[in-house]
Amino acid sequence: MTPHVEPDPQAGAAVKAADRAHVFHSWSAQGLIDPLAVAGAEGSYFWDYDGNRYLDFTSGLVYTNVGYQHPKIVAAIQEQAAKLTTFAPAFALDVRSEAARLIAERTPGDLDKIFFTNGGAEAVENAARMARLHTGRPKIMSAYRSYHGATSTAINLTGDPRRWASDTGSAGVVRFWAPFLYRSPFYATTEAQECERALAHLEDTIAFEGPATIAAIILETVPGTAGIMTPPPGYLAGVREICDRYGIVLVLDEVMAGFGRTGRWFAADHFGVVPDLLTFAKGVNSGYVPLGGVAISAEIAATFDKRPYPGGLTYSGHPLACAAAVATIEVMEDEKVVEHAAHIGEAVLGPGLRELAERHPSVGEVRGLGVFWALELVKDKETREPLVPYNAAGEANAPMAAFGAAAKKNGLWPFVNMNRTHAVPACNVSEAEVKEGLAALDAALSVADEYTV
């Protein structure tokens, strides 16, 4: 694939100048950033105005699950725009109903009612509200090493440093340690030990907080930005049992892990666990038009049969977003995208990453499912000292910055967070594209190796 436009550095300079003059970027010190001006994208690639093409191993922000500019989704948006561009959420619309039906058919268990939002953070906000209203309890428990969004409740539920500047300390949030054997907080040496001790820690925390005060436990089924730590066998089932015993709502956050990312429609399907509420966004329509939502169990939905639900959004179930969702799900079915993601993970991406780990001293661990993988980069494989300190910035982050620059130089746009790089290409990425990405990672990891002991 080649760029569809001739290189035009002058146009790129104008785009960047306008950006720097007027766009306020998220999560950034505005005077220290230098955003790339993007000229176009298709499939697994995007390119700039200088004609440089990049294989996107970030899927945007882990949401272009069927790649950029899929013609069937573009056509569905265009057709819906010609038919009915927008309409208020209180009305019944064919495309909204169809999107809800297709999503509900794929969620686990009886999660058959869909509340639409504009994205994942709003989905988490509303899931938390539903859980509190359903139980009449104030507290929600969430894990360290998590990310749930940047709105008020969602950011307080988040466990990574992006929370710190907004943490009120009074949001009714209780945090706990979820399992992560490679950096076990429980001194475990096996997955079975990690699972057992993590569940005991969770139950102890509940006991000391007061079970009757806890509305919900929220977990990313497979944590995303925090490191793609696949839970050990039995952990999610154990959390489900604890929730059932104490009348606590189990919320699984599938904003990043859902819609084929792990090689199943939802990551919960790997573990045989049905939550009471499931949040989604991103891959539901490959991010083409903002859309998210909460899939709701029959029991919680019944709470609001005669009692109004006190929440809503002007653009809930927006027709263009729902049309993109319908088309995306149909494309994923017709093109067997979920099955393909599972195959890529098992046969190409996973083995390829593990082979890199064997050759590169900077790779401490490889973990993941489907097209959802992380490489933990370390200074020393024996001590597992991270390649950069936790939440490093500036000079302290130089090794990861050098790694990222090397990847881009080799035509790969990497997902870099703290001391990790994540391999999260589109779910329909080809085997040839994965091998191209692995070759670029190989070269970039050689740069990271220079910082090992």
What does this structure look like?
The protein is α/β, with parallel strands linked by helices and 453 residues long. 38% of the residues lie in helices and 17% in strands. It is built from 13 helices and 16 strands. The protein has helices at residues 9-22, 59-62, 71-83, 94-106, 120-135, 152-157, 191-209, 235-246, 298-303, 319-334, 337-359, 398-409, 431-449, and strands spanning 38-42, 45-48, 53-56, 113-117, 139-143, 173-176, 214-220, 249-253, 277-280, 292-296, 363-369, 372-380, 385-386, 412-413, 415-417, 420-423. The strands form three sheets. It has a seven-stranded mixed β-sheet, with helices on both faces. Strands 11, 12, 13, 15 and 16 form a five-stranded antiparallel β-sheet that branches. Strands 1-2-3-14 form a four-stranded mixed β-sheet. Helix 8 (235-246) links the parallel strand 7 and strand 8. Helix 3 (71-83) packs antiparallel against helix 10 (319-334), helix 11 (337-359) runs parallel beside helix 13 (431-449) and helix 12 (398-409) packs antiparallel against helix 13.
Radius of gyration: 22 Å
The total of helices stands at 13
**What percent strand?**
15-25%
Share in helix: 25-40%
Mean pLDDT score: 97
Q: Uncertain segments of ≥5 residues (pLDDT<50)?
A: none
Q: Key features?
A:
single chain; 453 residues; alpha/beta; globular
Topology, element by element:
Blueprint (H helix, E strand, L loop, with lengths): L8 H14 L15 E5 L2 E4 L4 E4 L2 H4 L8 H13 L10 H13 L6 E5 L2 H16 L3 E5 L8 H6 L15 E4 L14 H19 L4 E7 L14 H12 L2 E5 L23 E4 L11 E5 L1 H6 L15 H16 L2 H23 L3 E7 L2 E9 L4 E2 L11 H12 L2 E2 L1 E3 L2 E4 L7 H19 L4
Parallel strand pairs: 3-14, 5-6, 5-7, 7-8, 8-9
Antiparallel strand pairs: 1-2, 2-3, 4-10, 9-10, 11-12, 12-13, 12-16, 15-16
Helix pairs in contact: 3-10, 4-10, 7-8, 11-13, 12-13
